[in-house]
Specification:
Radius of gyration: 21 Å
Order of helices and strands: HHEHHHHHHHHHHHEHHHHHEEH
Shape: globular
Strand order of the largest sheet: 1-2
Largest sheet: 2 strands, antiparallel
Number of domains: 1
Structural class: mainly alpha
Helix content: 55-70%
Strand content: under 5%
Number of helices: 19
Length: 428
């Protein structure tokens, strides 16, 4: 017998809704909490603001777009630049990143207003697939070294390797990798969380886990909030990532619409969806949390379960808010060893890179056309080469510089094509 589909506005019985909501929470939990763990901030504030942001999103979308807002990976690379190479000063520099998050949220909101007024067609000219695909891939490629260093695969200053750390990282990585292939049912949607648990368990006998912080942590505690600092240099480094998330957001909304059988870009509208994400991101920056984005993991849960109810999504958001006040949970999350998170990141950052390639495949980008080939080639080389452009005290490099260059070239090439100045050549 066919499994029943629970529609977007359909309410779910309370006892049935609880496990369904937890399922959505678990789907986003590992990846979403990974971001604050990498930044070395309290994950509780992120759980709190992800829940609050999701509820704001559902309200602004009039309860017609089922989406959970989790921590965005697109901002990892520029934030690491702002935080600096010395991890000892990350706590001091993190407020600078918050100013960039708020500016990014404002950009989301501005784009939402432009789309509300003029429509969304112009986005295809500024960020065509041949530009956006390699930009998304660069997010993962830029972070490859961060992942392998955290996992212990690189030697320390004395040339020695942390063998115990490598073991924990490999257990984590292999659990997530094989779990993604072999798990069934509910386990199939939480391979990241399962991998972290497995790596954590192995780390205990290897002496990588310290329980002092967990023992001293209160059972209940307020999340740690951080005040933003507005710095032009940091803002200019971070805001190009907002353009990547906007494109990602549009793609997620289209995919979600296909799953639930509605055109969500029209009802409730792309402008409402982007506005919800923008308000959530800006508010998160003011409270000390990280930028948010619609989560592909939760879209996958809906596709598997055929449960599209916004009431279930809202329930997951409420649970996320409640968990943020459990002090012991935050202490446990912060005790996860670096190699375990490194093992997870090797796969997750690779998946981000692969998702950029997937965008190119799904968009059927024709590389016999010189415009597409040139855009992708330049964006990739600018992003990977390490070349930097310094304007005053502001330095753009990596994915941030590639985004700016890619957008500028896309617009110029579109104008050349529109005025008939591009040759008819289709193969080079």
């Amino acid at each position: 017998m066919a499994r029943k589909t629970i529609r977007v506005e359909e309410k779910v019985p309370f006892l049935q809704g609880i496990p369904l909501s937890f399922q959505h929470l678990f789907a986003m939990f590992g990846a979403s909490v990974l971001v604050p763990t990498l930044f070395k901030i309290d994950p509780a504030v992120v759980l709190f603001m992800n829940g609050v942001g999701t509820l704001i999103y559902l309200v602004l979308c009039k309860g017609r777009a089922p989406a959970f807002l989790g921590s965005s990976f697109a901002f990892l690379s520029p934030v690491f630049v702002v935080l600096g190479a010395n991890q000892a000063v990350w706590g001091q520099n993190y407020p600078l990143a918050l100013g960039g998050f708020i500016a990014s949220g404002l950009i989301f909101m501005a784009v939402a207003l432009i789309i509300w007024k003029f429509g969304a067609g112009w986005i295809d000219f500024v960020l065509p697939p041949a530009t956006m695909g390699p930009i998304v891939a660069l997010i993962g490629l830029e972070l490859a070294g961060v992942a392998t260093n955290m996992a212990g695969f690189a030697p320390d200053a004395q040339g020695a390797y942390n063998v115990n750390g490598i073991i924990a990282a490999l257990v984590t990585l292999l659990t997530v990798a094989f779990g993604s292939l072999l798990f069934r049912g509910f386990m199939a949607v939480i391979p990241v969380l399962t991998g972290i648990v497995a790596g954590y368990a192995v780390s205990i006998p290897l002496g990588l886990v310290t329980f002092d912080g967990i023992a001293s942590a209160p059972v209940l505690a307020l999340p740690t909030f951080y005040a933003p600092v507005f710095d032009v240099n940091a803002i200019l480094i971070i805001i190009p990532a907002a353009l990547v998330v906007i494109s990602e957001h549009i793609g997620h909304l289209v995919v979600t619409g296909n799953i639930v059988g509605r055109d969500l870009t029209r009802d409730p509208g792309l402008h409402r969806s982007l506005m919800g994400d923008g308000v959530s991101t800006a508010l998160s920056g003011f409270m000390g949390s990280v930028p948010t984005t619609t989560y592909g993991e939760n879209i996958g849960v809906m596709a598997i379960t055929r449960v599209y109810s916004v009431w279930v999504i809202g329930g997951a958001a409420v649970i996320s808010i409640v968990l943020a006040f459990i002090g012991k949970l935050s202490a446990v999350i912060q005790s996860i060893p670096g190699p375990v998170m490194g093992g997870v990141c090797i796969l997750l950052f690779g998946v981000i890179a692969a998702s950029g390639i997937r965008m190119l495949v799904e968009a059927r980008v024709d590389y016999s056309k010189p415009i597409n080939l040139t855009l992708t080639a330049i964006v990739l080389i600018v992003g990977i080469s390490g070349v930097a452009v310094k304007i005053g005290n502001v330095e753009l490099k990596g994915m941030a510089l590639a985004t700016v260059v890619g957008m500028a070239l896309s617009l110029v090439f579109h104008l050349l094509e529109r005025f008939g100045l591009v040759s008819a050549q289709t193969d080079i």
